[in-house]
Amino acid sequence: MNKHDIALSALIGFFVAVFFLMVANTIGEFRSVFLLALPVFPVLAAVGMKVAFILAPKIPMLLQLSRFLLVGALNTFMDLGILNLLIWSTAITAGVWFSAFKGFSFAIAVINSYFWNKFWTFRAQKKEGAGGEFLQFLVVSVFGFLVNVGVASFAVNAVGPMFGIAPPLWANIGALLATVAAMTWNFLGYKLVVFRK
Fold this sequence. Notes:
It is a single chain. This protein is mostly helical. It has helices at about 5-25, 35-55, 60-90, 95-120, 130-160, 165-195. The longest helix has 30 residues, at about 130-160. The radius of gyration is 17 Å and the shape is globular.
């Protein structure tokens, strides 16, 4: 078992909890019980990584997939946290500004994603061709960006709130749908194109 991976998993869990609290505050669901996320999420992330280490001999790709999912959770909640901070500070939940906010929050999460995925998830240590690798990452990420912002904007601006859901909550539902679509694209692109060994 790699203690470094367990510690990084716990750190990611902590940051996921912080961004989760930002989202909960914006959609009006912040409750003191949510503060339990701060100690609970790091423990869950660390335990999940430990389980991945135990099962890894039988399922070789499990460690890499577990790291990707943890980094994906961090990127998702970073994206949502920044988006919700912008929504909270402006009270804008739709329209062109929502799309701009979503684009900005996704871009910050993608930069975070590059470093975590390069050095932790896929452990791509090669120095030569780093510029080309980053260019490939950007190309995959730009398509991921278009998928992410496109799906979120379609859900929020074209479909709009349904079933009596409040606009801030609907904005987050649209963002989550976009995250699932973009995460699928990004994993395949990063694994098969950018960080292939």
